[in-house]
Amino acid sequence: MSFARDAGRAVRSTLLLWVITAIIYPLLMIAFGQIAFPFQANGSLIKNAQNQIVGSALIGQPFTSDRYFNSRPSTTSYSTADPKKDEAGVLKTGVSGASNLAPSNPALRDRILGKNDEGDLPRLKKAGVQPTADLVYTSASSLDPHITPEGAKAQIARVASSRQLQPNQLETLISQNTDNRFLGIFGEPGVNVLKLNLALDRLKPGI
């Protein structure tokens, strides 16, 4: 009799804890997120001037045109893929990760230095961009949406020339789109490339 009573109590306790942890708690967290942090809870999605979703503030995108501030290199091309040639299912699942190549690895040297001036470093110098570390090396996730303020400022001359803008306009734009340290002490300042380029498209040439 005692065993049956204890077993019943254990089953009821298990069911109660399951309801609390698997149903009630997740629903409360979802409701709290939607009320207190709706932007973050829904993926930090960014819209353009036409109110179309163009990406997330949390995941980088490849920008390589001279008319835009370029992103940092990515070993996964920011999980982009040709829908017609996506055998690996990148568009379905996404890919994240670093190359883990040592500084002595020939593949890393070839990507950075290149052959016949086709590497990242010669390309940046040819465009008049003073290379910074984040414009040459990939991030640990290869999905980092930020570059350093220094990396953004290094591209001012190229972007200003392509768009017929004044350099001081772009300096102001970078300052306005720089995310400072969290709580003033955690992390480093960074510039979200997607947000910066969307603001760039809204910028009108100055005198």
Automatic annotation (TrEMBL):
It is found in: Cell membrane. The keyword Transmembrane helix applies. Keywords: ATP-binding, Cell membrane, Ion transport, Membrane, Nucleotide-binding, Potassium, Potassium transport, Transmembrane, Transmembrane helix, Transport. Pfam families: KdpC. Signal peptide: none annotated. Its main location: membrane. The chain crosses the membrane at residues 15-37. It is a single-pass membrane protein. The system is composed of three essential subunits: KdpA, KdpB and KdpC. PANTHER family: POTASSIUM-TRANSPORTING ATPASE C CHAIN, POTASSIUM-TRANSPORTING ATPASE KDPC SUBUNIT. Belongs to the KdpC family. Part of the high-affinity ATP-driven potassium transport (or Kdp) system, which catalyzes the hydrolysis of ATP coupled with the electrogenic transport of potassium into the cytoplasm. This subunit acts as a catalytic chaperone that increases the ATP-binding affinity of the ATP-hydrolyzing subunit KdpB by the formation of a transient KdpB/KdpC/ATP ternary complex. This is Potassium-transporting ATPase KdpC subunit. It comes from Scytonema hofmannii FACHB-248.
